[in-house]
Amino acid sequence: MTKAIITVVGKDTVGIIAHVCSYLADNNINILDISQTIVHGYFNMMMIVDLSDTKKPFDTISTELDEAGKAKGVQAKIQLEAIFDKMYRI
Fold this sequence. Notes:
This protein is an alpha+beta fold. It is built from three helices and four strands, in the order βαββαβα. The chain has helices spanning 16-26, 58-71, 81-87; strands at 3-11, 30-39, 42-50, 74-80. Strands 2-3-1-4 form a four-stranded antiparallel sheet. The model has no long low-confidence stretch (mean pLDDT 93).
């Protein structure tokens, strides 16, 4: 299993989760865990996903996810779990 961390941050608007999840479903990316919150009108979501069944290279997914986020006025970023773990290890 190839896991990745997706973060989505920005001003809250209708359909952010649906927009991001539609992109993931269209690319056979399975959501393993999801957490989201809204604080004072700002949306924050973190997802753990499985990239094992997608046909696209990681760089393409990263670029397309960034574009999908911009289309909804939010910032959407993806990192491989192994890199995320090394960057945020205490």
